[in-house]
Design a protein that fits this description.
Layout: E1 4-13, E2 16-26, E3 31-35, H1 42-50, E4 57-62, E5 65-66, E6 77-80, H2 92-102, H3 107-121, H4 136-148, E7 154-158, H5 166-183, E8 186-191, H6 194-200, E9 203-208, E10 211-216, H7 218-223, H8 228-233, E11 240-250, E12 253-258, E13 262-266, E14 278-283, E15 289-290, E16 298-307, E17 311-317, E18 323-329, E19 339-343, E20 350-352
């Protein structure tokens, strides 16, 4: 396996700049996920690592060696594509063996590697079939197997699950996690699905417009987003955002006010901000205390009640015209048109300044 380092990596197509000064370190054996909305540059960045796109500036290092001018074939990496990219006229065995045959590997070793990978992925019975005879999940296993047999330094996975249906994506996420554990491999996975990122990654890289917004462990990004973009992108359903303003700030924290609704004392550091400055108050749907009244409770009305059996989603409107989602475990008797009290636990409230930057927590 291998380590990877990106130093001020840039990419431009003519005057169109798509990757901006990306710095990143990936340790041996890490599972790292690039996540962000469509067009944010995550696949371009992966292709630059693979050697399929040239960098405009900066360096890419694998195990301490700068590989900018080393061809894709010589970098020792393996890529799994969204489209599977299997040869339709070849059997599963031939697809998995093709790259090894081109490298003139002895036939006995090729056969052993293919059978070992097929056994690991539970596709031994399909080795004689053509891709058209396989389901989407089976084709994806073949594409992953073709990468495994090469024993690459790093696995590069470009949205490999996006063509699968929802149920199969869940199963394949578990397969990838187990595969990572068994191989102890360095893996970089690209997706626009933040649930996929949260469940797979040791470390998530959140990208927007070709820039890194935040890097960290999944729960670090969930609990302590650096800015409003990351807060809204990580978590499902996404964080609720409400317009507020700063009433006061001191060494004990911040008092934020949603005009006409409530005031909230939050253990955040707002010193240096002026009273009356606009803020955005964020709270996750699962952190709202459903049905709890009190001094800091917000009163609203249920507009939609989704009862899923094991969990419920309440879509609510507030007197100031804003909307909010509540996610609660189990079932609830709340129905459309019901009034509802919503408690916002102070330690679970996030505050963002007018530039979208998160107010830091109070120092211990």
């Amino acid at each position: 396996m291998a380590t990877l380092r990106l130093n001020k990596v840039n990419k431009a197509f003519g005057e169109f700049h798509v990757i901006h000064d990306v710095d990143l370190e990936i340790q041996d054996g890490e599972f790292v996920v690039f996540v962000g909305p469509s067009g944010c540059g995550k696949s371009t960045l992966l292709r630059m690592i693979a050697g399929l796109e040239k960098t405009t500036g900066g360096d890419i290092e694998i195990d301490g060696e700068v590989v900018n001018d080393i061809s894709a074939a010589e970098r020792g990496l393996a890529m799994v594509f969204q489209s599977y990219a299997l040869y339709p006229h070849m059997t599963v065995f031939q697809n998995m063996a093709f790259g090894l045959e081109n490298n003139r590997m002895p036939r006995d070793e090729i056969r052993q590697r293919v059978h070992d990978a097929a056994q690991m992925l539970r596709i031994e019975e399909y080795l004689g079939r053509k891709p058209r005879e396989l389901s989407g999940g089976q084709r994806q296993r073949v594409a992953i197997g073709r990468a495994i047999v090469r024993k690459p330094k790093i696995f590069l996975l470009d949205e490999p699950l996006s063509n699968l249906d929802a149920e199969l994506r869940v199963l394949m996420r578990a397969e990838l996690t187990n595969l990572h554990v068994r191989l102890r491999a360095t893996m970089i996975h690209v997706t626009h699905d933040q649930v996929e990122a949260m469940t797979l990654a040791d470390k998530i890289v959140v990208l927007r417009d070709g820039r890194v917004e935040q890097i960290g462990a999944p729960l670090d990004l969930y609990n302590r987003p650096d800015n409003q973009f990351v807060a809204g992108f990580i978590g499902s359903p996404k964080m609720n955002f409400l317009a507020a303003k700063l009433k006061s700030a001191d060494a004990k924290g911040v008092v934020a006010e949603i005009e006409g609704l409530a005031e909230f004392a939050v253990p955040a550091d707002g010193r240096g901000l002026a009273a009356g400055q606009p803020l955005t108050l964020g709270i996750r749907p699962e952190h709202i205390e459903h049905g709890k009244a009190g001094n800091s409770a917000v009163r609203g009305a249920v507009t939609v009640s989704e009862q899923l059996g094991g969990e419920s989603y309440l879509y609510c409107s507030l007197p100031n015209g804003e909307n909010i989602i509540i996610h609660t475990a189990g079932q609830t008797g709340a129905r459309r048109g019901d009034g509802i009290d919503m408690g916002f636990p102070s330690g679970l409230i996030h505050l963002f300044d007018s530039n979208g930057h998160a107010l830091p927590p109070l120092s211990a």
